[in-house]
Specification:
By secondary structure, the protein is mainly β. It has two helices and 16 strands. It has one domain: Sandwich (Jelly Rolls), CATH 2.60.120.10. 8% of the residues lie in helices and 43% in strands. A seven-stranded antiparallel sheet has the order 3-4-5-12-7-10-13, covered by helices on one side.
């Protein structure tokens, strides 16, 4: 994988000057294989703390895992839906979160995750992860051999059948505390007023995510 093309454009965000990498200059990567299914990625470079990507899923498409491709990471992950719909599934715990355009899915810690597009049109997702999992020059597939295989797949929180929606507040509180997979909307953001309104989806020691 080659680095994104250098740009002469620079912008200031949060009082910091950063390089602007345009869509046409992003590096295209095909993640996955026939067994895991494949995802088209646009890589916008990897900073010291955060790695920004964009990916798409066609209607009815998904990604899971294979021996060579294992979506199991110990990171903070934010998937912001630009277009369409995205569902993220933790196959070990059975947790599932769904986001529409303008919403995000967030979690942290060591987890597997599968992704699905159950919507009627292609989904376009802005992805940010921290910390970096590997050196920029190392392909992800090289690290998969170090990861364990996935065991039994749990397709939902069956333990909550007969308790929903009464158990919803408790489940959401636990997810916030433990880094579980959760959907974040504008109501969940930390809002601030400057010259314009800022919506903070994530602001932690590891990274910040504003839209």
């Amino acid at each position: 994988m080659t680095a994104p093309k250098k740009s002469n454009s620079r912008v200031t965000i949060l009082d910091r000057e950063i390089e602007l990498i345009r869509y046409a200059d992003a590096t295209r990567v095909l993640w996955g294989d026939e067994m895991s299914h494949q995802v088209y990625d646009w890589v916008y470079g990897k900073g010291e703390r955060i790695a920004p990507f964009m990916f798409s899923l066609r209607s009815g498409e998904y990604f899971k895992w294979s021996e060579k491709w294992k979506p199991r990471y110990d990171q903070h992950r934010l998937y912001y839906v630009l277009e369409g719909q995205l569902s993220i599934h933790d196959p070990e715990s059975g947790e599932v979160a769904r986001a529409e355009a303008g919403e995000a899915i967030y979690w942290s810690g060591l987890r597997w995750h599968f992704g699905y597009n159950f919507g009627s049109k292609e989904a376009l997702i802005l992805e940010a992860v921290a910390p970096k999992e590997r050196p920029p020059e190392m392909p992800e597939v090289e690290m998969s051999w170090e990861k364990p295989d996935l065991g039994e797949v749990v397709n939902g929180r069956y333990d909550l059948l007969g308790k929903w929606p009464a158990a919803r507040p408790e489940v959401h509180r636990e997810a916030w505390k433990t880094g579980g997979i959760m959907t974040m909307t504008a109501r969940d953001c930390l809002h601030m007023i400057k010259v314009y309104e800022e919506r903070w989806f994530v602001d932690t020691e590891q990274w910040k995510g504003a839209f």
